[in-house]
Amino acid sequence: MRVVTGGVSHESSTFTTVATDWQSYTDWFYLRGEEMLNKFRGTNTPIGGFIDGAETHGFELIPTVLAEAHPSGPTPRDIFDAILEEMLNRIAEAGSIDGVLLELHGSMVVGDLEGPDGIDDPEGHILAAIRQAVGPEIPILAQLDIHSNVSPQMVDAADILIGRETYPEIDMAERSRECADVLMSIVNDGKRPTMALHQIPMIWGIHQVTAHPPMREAIDELHRIEAQPRVICGSIATCYYLADVPNMGASVYIVTDNDQALAQAYADQLGTWIFDRREMWHGAAPTTCEALKIAEADGKFPVIFADRNDNTGGGSPGDSTGMLQCFIEAGLQNACVLYIVDPEAIAQCQRAGMGATLTLDVGAKSTPAQGQPIRMTAEVIALSDGDFRYGGPMLAGLNSTMGPSAYIKQDGVHVLLVTQREQPFDTAFSRTLGLEPRQMRYIGVKSSAHFRAGFESWAGAIHVVSEPSVHTLSDLTFKRLGRKLYPLDNI
Whole-model pTM? Predict the structure, then answer.
């Protein structure tokens, strides 16, 4: 049995100032053929899970191309076309195949949506192109991010879509193994998947962490439906609200064995259950300084402040300064900020050298929407090329880099400056510079929830905060939505 695999994965914000280009992909992942298998074997990643599935079931996995860029602005059309053309060529070169396993994100945007080159549903475009290439009989399965904007075209073109059901997304390999399991049930057991979509008129809010109520209840309800007769699998997509496209919004998609009406009934049932509880998924986020007062009164340390607006994992620049300003003005001791993207300040630190004390302006270099640079007189504690290996559980075993980096300290405030935009999934990178976050009393992270995978088990308290950023929801103007969405609209 021969199965091709590959992927095109990008979370595209139509509001960020961070542009996407070829380097965005080559700096992250642009891998061909065996490079894919060598890079991801034994890792908690989607491709790593496909590899595990192939080894478990004994089928040949034929790698094509994996193109993945860190979240940023829309991918230019010429880049997208080149990636898709290479993937289709490699699928054709594979010869006779029995299935397709894909890693897609579900919230990609391509080109200028105001012009003729724009594509507001690239995943649907990719799946339709692959379907045309392999024909109607070859099963196509794709793993999606939990933050997907799922379209009817995606559902029509694929046999099976399986979304991650944890946030933080620690089940990437597990969901890919599920894809492999389902593929085998189609090929060997004669399963005939019928998939149905229910688009919920809602943007999912701040309450998405699947280990805690109320989100835990939504996952439990999903599992209840998955346990019903003739249901193969099901998923909840909480949406990626930073893409101004017609299919933006939460959704549910359910797959049954040869019963389209049943699949639609269960999708509608779960979608209605979620929408009826729409207020449960939303909540307000205080500023860092407001949350600091609450944390001091509660006395649960170490306390983590998570700036959801400047989450680089959502496409933000990563250099907002509201959190850093609060820490400095409060005169905190044993406080750290992970991370601030600032290559200019890092270059100053490199010129000064380890052990030097210098005055420099930190952060807010990308756009005034990110705040104002903070003047610091700081000691350079450590310098690094940024190379490290994730400890997990998210991305466990994957080698990565933050690019040239610097660890600086002013009084009791410790700051890690990085070149590459990335959120702290765990403490592995910090420790390469000699900073142990567990020894801090106050920890600021630029992340919505993924940091929880490596931090929550030892945190005394966690506060999600909101600081000025290009992604402050109240400042965003949507022009291309295909429907009214709660809470943007009073429905």
Answer: 0.94
What is the reported pLDDT for 7? 98
The pair of three-digit structure tokens given for residue 50, joined into one six-digit string: 């496909």
Confidence (pLDDT) at 336: 98
221 in helix, strand or coil? Answer: helix
Tell me, what amino acid is at 311?
A: N
* Tally of CB atoms within 10 A around 153: 15
Q: How far is it, in rounded angstroms, from Cα 180 to Cα 165?
A: 17
* Alpha-carbon gap, residue 67 to 83, rounded angstroms: 7
Structure tokens at 262: 């049943």
Instruction: Say what the pLDDT of residue 474 is.
Output: 86
Q: Is 53 helix (H, G, I), strand (E, B) or coil?
A: helix
The backbone region for 42, taken as left when phi is positive above 0, alpha when psi lies in -120 to 50, beta otherwise, is: left
Task: Give the per-residue pLDDT at 41.
Answer: 96
DSSP 347-416: HHHHHH-TT-EEEEEES--S-GGG--PEEEEEEEEEEE--EEE--SSTTTT-EEE--SEEEEEETTEEEE
Separate counts of helices (H) and strands (E) for the chain: 14, 19
CB 61 within 8 A of CB 90: no
Measuring CA to CA, which residue among 454, 400, 401, 396 is closest to residue 424? 454
Query: For the stretch 39-57, what's the b/e string if a residue is b when 16 or more beta carbons lie within 10 angstroms of its beta carbon?
Result: bbeebbbbbbbbbbbbeeb
Q: Which amino acid is at 416?
A: L
Tokens, residue 455:
């931090």
List all residues 6 or more positions away from 142 whose beta carbon is below 8 Å from its beta carbon. Answer: 101, 102, 103, 104, 123, 127, 154, 158, 160, 161, 162, 179
User: Bridge partners of 254?
Assistant: 196, 234
- Position 183 scores a pLDDT of 98
Spell out the domain ranges in the chain: 2-281, 288-465
Residue 401: which of 411, 390, 414, 410 has the closest Cα?
A: 390
Query: Is residue 482 predicted with pLDDT exceeding 90?
Result: no
| Beta-carbon contacts of residue 296 (< 8 Å; ≥ 6 apart) | none
